[in-house]
Design brief:
α4 packs parallel to α5 and α10 packs across α15. Helices cover 39% and strands 16% of the residues. The strands form 3 sheets. The protein has an 8-stranded parallel β-sheet, with helices on both faces. The protein has a 6-stranded parallel β-sheet with strand order 12-11-9-13-14-15, with helices on both faces. Strands 6-10 form a two-stranded antiparallel sheet. It is globular, with a radius of gyration of 23 Å. By secondary structure, it is an alpha/beta fold. It contains 17 helices and 16 strands. It folds into 2 domains: 226 residues, Glycogen Phosphorylase B (Rossmann fold); 225 residues, 3-Layer(aba) Sandwich (Rossmann fold).
């Protein structure tokens, strides 16, 4: 397996979690293999990798126009499996040409978006080349894809995932629960294809540990979250409307139309994917400890929602003086912010029915390279399971303000008294090294048969 052709819509220098994973997998492979990559990413470049650009194509403009015409329901029904369906044919053409010009030994595909994996699977069908499929998120993950336009769309997504798995020669997942859930529904002949290779962290990117500077007596405790949050609009929807009664009826009718036929495979509560509940926990502690007022702050870095929406939510809960929301930061700066925080905060959408989910946040691994306490407000499932035995991690349900308070109170008190809680995760950090993940993936490539049969199962947890 000396010649490889990769297909990934996301690609360095983009900073999506998938692009970062593609970076350390393909960089490692390029040291010993010839690697070409088909991608849409603007300015795509990677040392040792020949990039075959295929212009970005997606259905976002169509979706926007339909929404403005109040026909968003129709676009929801038509666009599947994701917005990047228009990229499939031009990418497939480019891939087929690349194979004809120089036949590779194997195909590699990185998703999401899933349209890129469709390209790879079709290319395998056309050429007979072995295929390794890397799924960062499952199309049927009960956390990521919990709601579908119709029940038929849910069935189609499961059918697509099964087809991708059964077409590929090996499939890589980052979530153990998702992998086992999909594996359990496959025919016996395909169950050996599954491999667990979690996300990792490039150790060289981690800020060097230095002696902690003396903490100023008046310095506030900084609770830091890095990354996007998706639940802001769920809080604005619950704000009392000032519109006239007929207008409220019209809005309710319009909302009913847009939700008509929608299928909820697994209910989630996106409201917890905001800093509202951690803010309320701090608010409650300030009432108990008035001497802490002005000395505890929550900082969110990576917001992409309109500032007006964010301010509306913070104002509603009277959190403006506690929660501070900042825009996206370069990955290097985000890592520095993590390591400089007093307390790190992680949250995911809650699962009201208590069933376990399959999602694990990419920042989980980056947080674990720090020596800071981690307050993880996550529902039952993969993220909770993975963090349950890690040092310095304090687990809570996402919306449980009382439980958040019970964790925060001693951490804040210790920090304000100059006794900063630190946790030695040196040995754990070594296991998170992206090089180890890349080596596991390269080993899988090396064991990939030249004929279409599955390689033995392996796991790099």
């Amino acid at each position: 397996m000396d010649n490889l052709l990769a297909i990934s819509y996301r690609f360095p220098p983009q900073t999506y979690p998938l692009a970062i994973r593609v970076d350390y997998f393909l960089t490692h492979l390029a040291r010993t293999h010839r690697v070409r990559a088909i991608t849409s990413a603007p300015g795509a470049a990677l040392d040792g990798v020949e990039v075959i650009p295929v212009r970005e194509r997606d259905a976002s403009r169509f979706k926007h126009v339909m929404k403005r015409l109040r026909l968003g329901k129709i676009s929801d029904l038509l666009i599947w499996p994701d917005l990047f369906v228009p990229w499939i044919l031009p990418a497939l053409y480019a891939g087929y040409r690349a194979v004809q010009q120089e036949r590779p030994d194997a195909l590699l595909s990185f998703a999401m978006p899933y349209s890129g994996s469709v390209v790879a699977a079709l290319l395998k069908k056309l050429t007979g080349l072995p295929l390794i499929l890397n799924l960062n998120d499952s199309p049927t993950c009960p956390d990521v894809e919990s709601t579908f336009p119709t029940r038929a769309h849910a069935w189609a997504s499961q059918t697509l995932e099964d087809w991708l798995v059964q077409t590929a020669d090996a499939v890589v997942y980052v979530s153990k629960r998702n992998m086992e859930r999909v594996q359990a529904r496959q025919p016996e002949a395909h169950r050996s294809k599954f491999h667990l290779i979690r996300r990792g962290v490039r150790i060289t990117d981690i800020p060097q540990r230095t002696a902690a500077p003396e903490r100023p007596a008046d310095a506030p405790v900084r609770i830091v979250y890095t990354g996007g949050l998706s639940g802001w609009h769920m809080h604005t929807r619950s704000i009392t409307s000032t519109a006239s009664r007929p207008m409220q009826w019209a809005k309710r009718a319009w909302n009913a139309w847009n939700h008509w036929g929608r299928y909820v495979a697994s209910p989630t509560d996106p409201r917890s994917h905001t800093p509202v509940y951690i803010g309320q926990a701090v608010q409650q502690l300030l009432e108990t400890h008035p001497e802490w007022v002005g000395r505890v702050e929550v900082h969110v870095y990576g917001n992409t929602f309109p500032e007006s929406v964010v301010q509306e939510v913070l104002s509603r809960y009277d959190l403006e003086s506690i929660v501070h929301v900042h825009g996206p930061r370069p990955h290097e700066e985000a890592l520095q912010l993590m390591h400089a925080a007093d307390i790190l905060f992680l949250t995911l959408p809650d699962r009201p029915n208590g069933t376990p989910g399959g999602r694990i946040s990419a920042k989980t691994y980056e947080y674990l390279t720090t020596d800071r306490p981690i307050l993880a407000a996550v529902p039952p499932g993969e993220n909770h399971d993975y963090l349950s035995d890690k040092p310095g991690v304090f687990l809570s349900r996402p919306c449980d303000v009382e439980h958040l308070c019970s964790h925060l109170e001693p951490l804040i008190a210790s920090t304000l008294h100059g006794d900063l809680p630190f946790f030695d995760r040196t040995l754990l950090t070594k296991t998170l090294d992206s090089t180890r993940r890349a080596e596991a993936f390269a080993e899988l490539v090396g064991r990939l048969p030249s004929s279409a049969s599955a390689a033995p199962a392996a796991a790099a947890a």
